[in-house]
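Consider the subject:
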Amino acid sequence: MSRPLYQLKAEFFKTLGHPARIRVLELLSQREHAVAEMLPEVGIEPANLSQQLAVLRRAGLVTTRKEGSNVYYSLTSPHVAELLSVARLILTGVLSGQVELLADLGTPASSATNRGGGSPGTTSRRG
């Protein structure tokens, strides 16, 4: 019996759940890269990068080609780059909403009482 699509999607997103893997996919969204080119950009040890690339390869997100002693990686589909772009748009929206919320929270409470008319700092006198 096949697994439900939502379960497959969860496993797919788990594969994306590591910062180094996301960084690798971002780099590969631009163009193919040799492993040595990615090392300084990703900022992890060579053995760890190799492990992360193997995870992405097993998931079918990247493919390799060998040229001499260099191994080059590329995305298997342009949809991976699109997914990262959409994720960026979603995060931008979420974060801008949080900034607005923080701005609202930072507004002094006294400004809310000044909405009823009159100038700030003035008092009404009733005689």
